[in-house]
Write a structure and sequence with these properties.
Distance between the termini: 20 Å
Low-confidence stretches: none
Strand content: 5-15%
Strand order of the largest sheet: 1-2
Order of helices and strands: EEHH
Structural class: alpha+beta
Number of strands: 2
Helix content: 10-25%
Radius of gyration: 13 Å
Oligomer: single chain
Number of helices: 2
Mean pLDDT: 86
Largest sheet: 2 strands, antiparallel
Length: 71
């Protein structure tokens, strides 16, 4: 999700980066909030779509600062 709006990936994951299509989100750009998974987009759904399990997604995060919150 980009600023709470769904977007689609373009191409393949390259190293630890990915490219998203912002053509339907003209207000999005540098500084936009990006959610890979969370309350709206469940990790289990993302994992199922990728043909894996949530644990594998979490273990593959490397350089991303993690923000923990009670919720």
């Amino acid at each position: 999700l980009i600023d709470g709006q769904p977007s689609r990936l373009i191409g393949r994951v390259s190293m630890d980066m990915l490219t998203v299509d912002l053509s339907e989100l003209p207000a999005a750009g540098l500084g936009s909030r990006v959610e890979l998974w969370g309350k709206t987009l469940l990790a289990s759904d993302v994992a199922a779509h990728a043909g894996t399990i949530p644990y594998q997604l979490f273990c593959n995060l490397r350089r991303v600062p993690l923000l923990y919150s009670e919720g």
